[in-house]
Amino acid sequence: MPRVTGFCTCLQCHKQDGLHRSCWVSLPCEAHPKIQSPMKKRRNSRLMQNGESMGPQTQGPKSTAEEEEEEVQPTLPSAPPAPQSPPPPPPCLRPRLVFHTQLAHGSPTGRIHGFTNVKELYAKIAEVFNISPSEILFCTLNSHKVDMQKLLGGQIGLEDFIFAHVRGETKEVEVTKTEDALGLTITDNGAGYAFIKRIKEGSTIDLLKTVCVGDHIEAINDQSIVGCRHYEVARMLKEQTRGVAFTLRLVEPKKAFDMIGQRTRAPKSSEGKMVSGKETLRLRSKGTATVQEVPNEFEEQATKKVDDLLESYMGIRDLELAATIVEAGKDKKNPDDFAEALDSVLGDFAFPDVFLFDVWGAIGDVKNGRV
């Protein structure tokens, strides 16, 4: 009788003790002495692999007849392997942006790349010229002079040449406020240094003649202000008591021989001019730098208007800050939405409501052609 390897269909097997109710054979019966449970086969196989002896029911050499009776399971053809998908194409990367740079007082030309904000830019310049990043006061574009029209702000044209102005002489000046305003416009370099961007003609500071555009304000009454933002420094100066003398410690940019004796005052009519070129690298204090199209006419005019309002209300000039304000308000429908958007990105400034309404009006005037 051929050996059965599947279900037992024998009626007699159902009367044997130890049979599983699903009719799988677990013990040999008289009718089929060679049938063995598949579960027991696997158990015996594991015992043999582990080196354990088998019981008399399952141990012993097979006879030749038994080997011939074994049913050979047919081998099903395996499915052909699925064709491998080709690797994805490499991402289309922009070419690396490389900028040329020099120290403003004179140096060989260096090449820098891989920066995303002003602090990283200063670190790259310092690495090229083997100086400390803290030596750099500010940078100008396409001019080695202390020219506030060329001041590096939040944008760099892809073909702009960067000049780094480093620390020069330190001087202390005693100032007595004779008016509510000193006549100073303050900005900062984005890396902790506030400096003078404009001096109002005929003002208290203008009469001193020793304070110059480009001077870094290092301390007020021996209190260091390194690390303070421009609006914080402007507020400190505004809070000085009228008629009471105070001391400014200033650091002027290092000058080349052909610049000694100059006192630069940026003309008001052209200050704040945007960089030229088809694309610019936009530097952000938070987040990565991005390559953008040059601001359109609306953005350029609105940014200039907002920068003027920053000077009027806060005594500072900051094109990057002004551009951020315009970006927050250009697509808003009402002043409340504008104020909410501005608070989400520039909440630290705590702008007064009257300033926000004037800025909203200025943006609307430019948008509607009322300028």
Automatic annotation (TrEMBL):
<dbReference type="InterPro" id="IPR056814">
    <property type="entry name" value="GIPC1-3_GH1"/>
</dbReference>
<dbReference type="InterPro" id="IPR036034">
    <property type="entry name" value="PDZ_sf"/>
</dbReference>
<dbReference type="Pfam" id="PF25083">
    <property type="entry name" value="GIPC1_GH1"/>
</dbReference>
<dbReference type="InterPro" id="IPR001478">
    <property type="entry name" value="PDZ"/>
</dbReference>
<feature type="domain" description="PDZ">
    <location>
        <begin position="172"/>
        <end position="252"/>
    </location>
</feature>
<comment type="similarity">
    <text>Belongs to the GIPC family.</text>
</comment>
<feature type="region of interest" description="Disordered">
    <location>
        <begin position="49"/>
        <end position="95"/>
    </location>
</feature>
<feature type="compositionally biased region" description="Pro residues">
    <location>
        <begin position="77"/>
        <end position="93"/>
    </location>
</feature>
<dbReference type="InterPro" id="IPR017379">
    <property type="entry name" value="GIPC1/2/3"/>
</dbReference>
<dbReference type="Pfam" id="PF25082">
    <property type="entry name" value="GIPC1_GH2"/>
</dbReference>
<dbReference type="InterPro" id="IPR055349">
    <property type="entry name" value="GH2_GIPC"/>
</dbReference>
<dbReference type="Pfam" id="PF00595">
    <property type="entry name" value="PDZ"/>
</dbReference>
<protein>
    <submittedName>
        <fullName>GIPC PDZ domain containing family, member 3</fullName>
    </submittedName>
</protein>
<feature type="compositionally biased region" description="Polar residues">
    <location>
        <begin position="49"/>
        <end position="62"/>
    </location>
</feature>
